[in-house]
């Protein structure tokens, strides 16, 4: 036998061993180590731990778990959105992937909060890893230098559906920078939609993508306080420095990652709760809510979990400052301010009309403040703004300091010290001698007679409210009203501010027909008008209102009309509030008729979570009239 053949026969059995050794040299060490870690993670059941569910935003479903993150780039396993075990194993494997030129895209840096947690839980040997530093992340931490955080609540803004419930964001603060120069963390839907109704409808059904963002806090102050006329409350959070580190790492993971934005539940306030849970995993915030999430309710939940222990700071908006300072002036002096704005009076001529130095200071101060507000609202050009402001400041500089402090805006009641937003009511009433019992339910939010507390006085926002009645004489249980949407904004006008008031209501309501019987009809009622405020009589308003009724009880199946409404809304005392209203409508299309209603409603507060109401009304429809009285007990929950 030839020598070469002998060598081949001798070497052939060694080929499989040689191949195994070669493959082991390339990656076997990493693979075996990562497999050991995966096995340890299985034994410890790490995928079932609360913090893993927090980092992946997992929520329990009927079939298991599902993440609220919708961006597929957030998951390393193909089924990671619904499989916590698969995702944790894919993450462990990815940690040992070879480093590429772009180290920041390596899973260790891209998902640094997951890595740090797994490193602690599994005692990972860092010498086995290909990546040891994450320079971009470290640079962000050096820039932000997170030491503490504040929960920021810009209050209600009725002219935007996205803001009528308020908003929340986080302010990340340092020891060295002022609060205004710190960084704000915000979650919001990304859209260029300018139509408020379209935005609301699309937001209801998740047509927008929501992203986390980091911006200078002063930019958000300008957006909310200066432009949107919204007061701001700042609630300090008692997070430690290590908790701030955990939150920062999770925030880094969420950068450029989207979730589907839903107006009522997966909204700005709800998604911020995951950041707080990542900072302090012992709290239970996201499970507080099921069907809807209101910013004010998240503040209460955060407070209940012990993250808020100190009172909030109040930051009045530009509009609030102007209104307060204007209240210190006489009507004649306010007219001077307006004339300065319109160029009818030169600032340097103002002392000719006003002799008292203190009053001159007040006028120039409010003129400057009001001018800044009008410029922020883009009501005047930059050149006009600069020209008038320079003149005002020249006059103001000559007046010097006032003899005493002139301005002190007292903070209104804290917005979290209000009644709950859900309401259940039970009442007893009489309608044309027929006794009835009534029960009502409202999921959210507030109506005109509810305690104002943190709400503006003329706000009514209700979704899904309804009432059932049982009439004793007929022994019949009927649906009296079912309002899908009922919004009313009474924004008072004055010489400086001239907002419009508006309303929209749609749902089912029981209405008296031509035969004298009350039948259920669908109603769409909108309107717009003006509201004013007087110290003695409170708010008073006048609206023009188109209305559509549809139902089988109408002869033509529908009735379309136009009407007028007006009313008075007054807080008699801190516990007693009254609303007198009147409305008449002329239905000239479809089933022709006239409908009129006059009502007086009063609310007496028992405590912060309950009140009594007395409502007396008279209605006339299709020449059939009736009167009604109702006493009800309302409980907030």
Main sheet, how many strands, which sense, barrel? 12 strands, antiparallel, barrel
* Quantity of strands, as a count: 23
Question: In terms of structural class, how would the helical and strand content be classed?
Answer: alpha+beta
Measure the end-to-end span: 97 Å
What does the average pLDDT come to? 90
**CATH architecture title of the largest domain:** Beta Barrel
Task: Count the domains.
Answer: 4
How much helix is in the residues? 25-40%
Oligomer: single chain
Hey, roughly how much beta strand do the residues contain?
Answer: 25-35%
- CATH homologous superfamily (4th level) name of the largest domain: monomeric porin ompg
Query: Could you give the order of strands across the largest sheet?
Result: 10-11-13-14-16-17-18-19-20-21-22-23
Inertia-based shape:
globular
Give the C-level CATH assignment of the largest domain: Mainly Beta
Spatial extent as radius of gyration: 32 Å
Determine the number of helices (DSSP H or I, runs of at least 4 residues).
Answer: 17
List low-pLDDT spans: 1-29
What is the CATH topology classification name of the largest domain? Porin
């Amino acid at each position: 036998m030839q020598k070469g053949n002998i060598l081949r026969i001798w070497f052939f059995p060694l080929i499989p061993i040689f191949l195994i050794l070669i493959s082991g040299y390339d990656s076997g060490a990493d693979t075996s180590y990562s497999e050991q870690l995966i096995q340890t993670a299985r034994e410890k059941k790490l995928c079932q731990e609360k913090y893993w569910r927090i980092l992946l935003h997992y929520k329990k479903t009927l079939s298991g778990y599902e993440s609220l993150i919708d961006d597929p780039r957030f998951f390393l396993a193909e089924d990671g959105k619904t499989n916590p075990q698969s995702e944790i194993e894919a993450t462990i494997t990815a940690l040992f992937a070879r480093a590429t030129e772009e180290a920041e895209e390596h899973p260790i840096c891209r998902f640094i909060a997951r890595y740090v947690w797994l490193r602690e839980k599994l005692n990972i040997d860092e010498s086995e890893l290909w990546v040891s530093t994450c320079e971009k992340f470290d640079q962000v931490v050096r820039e932000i230098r997170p030491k503490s955080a504040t929960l920021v609540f810009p209050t209600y803004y009725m002219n935007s559906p996205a803001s009528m419930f308020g908003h929340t964001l986080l302010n990340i603060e340092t020891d060295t920078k002022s609060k205004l120069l710190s960084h704000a963390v915000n979650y919001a839907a990304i859209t260029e939609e300018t139509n408020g109704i379209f935005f609301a409808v699309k937001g209801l059904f998740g047509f927008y993508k929501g992203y986390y963002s980091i911006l200078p806090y002063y930019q958000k102050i300008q957006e909310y306080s200066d432009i949107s006329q919204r007061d701001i409350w700042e609630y300090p959070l008692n997070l430690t420095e290590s908790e701030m580190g955990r939150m920062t790492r999770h925030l880094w993971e969420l950068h450029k990652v989207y979730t589907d934005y839903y107006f009522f539940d997966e909204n700005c306030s709800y998604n911020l709760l995951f950041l707080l849970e990542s900072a302090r995993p012992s709290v239970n915030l996201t499970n507080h809510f099921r069907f809807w999430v209101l910013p004010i309710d998240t503040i209460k939940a955060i407070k209940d979990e012990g993250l808020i222990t100190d009172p909030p700071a109040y930051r009045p908006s530009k509009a609030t400052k102007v209104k307060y300072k204007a209240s210190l002036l006489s009507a004649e002096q306010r007219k001077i301010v307006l004339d300065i704005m319109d160029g009818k009076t030169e600032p340097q001529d103002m002392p000719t009309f006003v002799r008292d130095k203190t009053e001159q200071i007040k006028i120039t101060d409010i003129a400057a403040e009001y001018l800044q507000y009008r410029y922020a609202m883009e009501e005047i050009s930059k050149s006009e703004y600069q020209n008038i402001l320079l003149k005002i400041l020249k006059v103001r500089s000559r007046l010097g300091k006032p003899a005493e402090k002139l301005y002190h805006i007292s903070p209104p009641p804290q917005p979290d010290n209000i009644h709950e937003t859900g309401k259940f009511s039970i009442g007893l009433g009489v309608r044309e001698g027929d006794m009835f019992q009534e029960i009502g339910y409202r999921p959210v939010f507030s109506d005109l007679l509810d305690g104002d507390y943190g709400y503006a006085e003329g706000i009514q926002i209700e979704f899904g409210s309804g009432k059932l009645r049982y009439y004793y004489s007929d022994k019949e249980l009927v649906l009296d009203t079912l309002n899908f949407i009922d919004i009313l904004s009474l924004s008072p006008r004055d010489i400086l501010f001239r907002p419009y008031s508006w309303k929209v209501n749609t749902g089912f309501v029981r209405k008296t027909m031509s035969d004298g019987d009350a039948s259920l009809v669908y109603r769409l009622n909108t309107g717009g008008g003006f509201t004013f405020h007087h110290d003695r009589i409170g708010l008073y308003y006048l609206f023009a209102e188109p209305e559509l009724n549809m139902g089988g009880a109408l002869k033509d199946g529908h009735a379309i009309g136009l009407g007028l409404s007006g009313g008075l809304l007054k807080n008699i005392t801190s516990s007693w509030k009254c609303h007198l209203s009147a409305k008449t409508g002329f239905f000239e299309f479809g089933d022709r008729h006239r409908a009129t209603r006059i009502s007086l409603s009063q609310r007496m507060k028992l405590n912060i979570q309950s009140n009594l109401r007395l409502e007396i009304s008279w209605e006339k429809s299709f020449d059939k009239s009736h009167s009604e009285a109702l006493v009800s007990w309302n409980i907030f929950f």
